[in-house]
Amino acid sequence: MDSLNPGSGTRRTLMQRLHLDTMLLVGVLACAALGLVVLYSAADQNQAVLLRQLLRLGIALGTLFLVAQIPPQFLFRWTPWLYGLGILLLVAVLVTGHVGKGAQRWLDLGILRFQPSEMMKLIVPMMVAWYLADRRLPPRPLEILVSVFILALPTVLIARQPDLGTALLIGSAGFFVLYLAGLSWRLLAGLLGLAAASTPILWHFMHDYQRQRVLTFLDPQQDPMGAGYHIIQSTIAIGSGGLYGKGWLNGTQSHLEFLPERSTDFIFAVLGEEFGLMGILVLLFLYGFVLTRCLYIATRAQDSFTRLLAGSLGLTFFVYIIVNTGMVSGLLPVVGLPLPLISYGGTSMVTLMAAFGMLMSIHTHRKLLPH
Amino acid sequence: MARPITIKDPLLERRMFIRRTVAALAGSLLLTLALIARLVYLQVVSYDHYRTLSENNRIKIQPVPPTRGLIYDRHGVLLAENLPSYRLELIPEQVGEANMERTLDALGRIINIRPVDRERFQKLRRRMHRFESIPLRFHLSPEEVARFAVNRYRFPGVEVHAGLSRHYPYGRLTAHVVGYVGRMNEQDLKRLDPRNYRGTTHTGRVGIERAYEPLLHGTVGYEQVETNAEGRTLRVLKRQDPVPGSNLYLSLDLRLQRAAMAAFGHYAGAAVALDPRTGQVLAMVSVPTYDPNLFVNGIDRKRYQALNTDPERPLFNRALRGQYPPGSTLKPFVGLAGLELGFTTRDSRTFCPGYYMLKGGKRKYRDWKRTGHGFMDITHAITQSCDVYFYDLAHSLGIDRLHDFLAHFGFGRRSGIDLMGERAGNLPSSAWKRRAYHQAWYPGETLIAGIGQGYDLATPIQLAVAVATLASYGQRHTPRLARALALPGDVRPRPLPPTPVQQVPVIDRRHWSTVIHAMGQVVANPHGTARRIRTRAYSIGGKTGTAQVFGLKENEKYNASKLAEKLRDHALFVAFAPVDHPRIAVAVVVEHGGSGGAVAAPIARRIMDAYFGVDSDHGQP
Q: For an interface test with A, which of B39, B47, B51, B196 has the most A Cβ atoms less than 10 Å from its Cβ?
């Protein structure tokens, strides 16, 4: 049997009693450590930046630990309330939100600026999983319709803020629950077709800067001063890194300020330039390890709710990775998403760690089952 | 929570879940492989290409500043233009930190580099990136350009750039209207959009250049260039042209401007001419003036000190910011207040014995004519500028009624002209005095206010607006200098929409006619105070005024010749022409000019002559 299965009370290890999962924790910490190394170079060896990131990492790990202590049954009971609250906050942001960089995402709570869309990254898959938990799977058409509504409502609200990156993450997180619940392949193909067909309609509703991003993706040379410049410079940075890279702190593109946003969304290019393909493969391996562990935890979960939730959180983590790396290497359009566990920045890191905390909680709160 | 009970098959569901998870994992692997394929393409297959791009030939984005819009007068005479000029720039990264001082010294031997230039260069260097090009010298002479070209091989990272420099062909004549541009400083960077001003070196400091900065500046363009390792541009890969600034057409008429400036002679003061039908400013001078071209590329400290400490204050825009007691030029407005509010009629007369005393008071308020004017009606009182008539009228009106009526003409409030830094003057009331001095208003102060002295203050632009309003039966236009605008690509300029117009409430148009007629008599009547500017070419309505610079004691006699010039009264004149359908309104203030009729009125006449195309010296069209 599985050695990590908390069999009897006497065989519980310290980690199990702390509701932590060693393998997942090691993977996450390894990614974060690599991230700090790259960030130190990307931030021009600015120690203050490094310290701030360490502080955020500490807060995020604290969050992970706290969330891991919450039993999944408790989460299950509170899910619909959290969902309702989240929708209310999103509406509040749209009505009164603080406008930053031409987009409103923040709700100003006095000293604290709060981004409700951030917590929806967790709440939306929870809500869809909650809705499907006690139903017979695969879901019937009406249940699919309800699930789509549950995930579409916050996605549309966030896309209107407008925050395309987060909307994409939340939409896919909800969608993964449906997929894992056994949505038929035929319907899946149909939904994808529908999404493709609705592109012109979506185009109509997009903001100018969003359209520009899509156009830029299709032809980066068209806007070499704006987003196209980012892509041109990041591909040069990655390409010039070669197989083994230029060496730590030696990236010319990154340090001569040719590469914009190099410590946040475009940090992957710094990794590519300084550590080459080999460095990238190491990171991808670490990511793969974390992803596999997440999905493993999902398959070991004991009920529909935790199983669907864990699976969805793991796959969303992958979406993060592929969207960011695809964007920086010029495969996908520029969508403002950070590279998970590596990019400089606080809010998304905390959310991500909370997700890992949930996974650990799911794995360590399992009931004894007769063998 | 009540939920429908459905029959679930946990084993089946778990098996399906695992199948789905494996499929998702496989999908993820596929996507990752696609990513790795892309990375292999970038980092292995195209490695040489990208390495060359990154190490030998760097792609750089350079801002291309827009060309600043031109400024014309109403007849298309160029008032602000852009002339080609050469500047010397250094890229610190390529010069090298160690060589910097040596390079600057060596450059100083072939090109004149003042300590100011070095100072500014060092200041800019701290603010800009090492790889950015930083200007050291502007306006290189052709000889300097040639000398540098010969020695260029000795100076890696130093280059001569051709650019445009602002020039004001009529310099001093239009300085107080057009203003000037100056080199951008740190405060400017905070105030302006840093993206749009990348590459821009100058911005409007004062005058039209400042007020219309957003229109004149245009939108920055970009050039994507490939440079070699030293940063020298090898070729331009892509160019997005800047959008030049719009050309601005002023309502200013250079001929009137010139006439006004010449008419002032050695006096200091200001003159403003407006079109009462539109509020367009036809002329606006403030003398003495200065050469705005000195400021464009940084005036040296000595010359700036000289301008700044000159007791005549050439940098001070008197037309906009000079606040003078309006003196007797206020009388027509006070008279109109009396007529409109029913405190006097056209025919009622007041006896002027040469002084006025309040009931129960002891103080004698003297008339400028010590022997007195005798019986005066409103027409004669305005024509001869009788003080006693207006002491009496102001006393019956009371200060607050007077304040409210005069406010309609724009006194005590900024005119809203399209220039910055305008002053509001002062229109006193009892409430104002309580606010400003915590004191009650004294009846005697009403008398003084009634002849435009005491607390009354007005700027020349306010006086011009007020007389234009009176002459056009209460139509008060917001004055404006800009008349039309030509966006890039426009074949002809597009006129700007008219400025807001306010109608002063008119109770009886005949009251206004009476006052306007009386102002005509000021010039036309042999007893009028401005009779010497009378001309057969066109009819003029006007009012003279003198503003006391310092007070005289009750029994003192004013003797202009004995007073030092600095203590002499300011001379004022407001006018409009023709009397019936005025097309021009003028206000003239001559500091220490002494007499409005003798000094200020002839200046107004010369401006109006220029407007009507009359030869001033012969009085013939």
A: B39
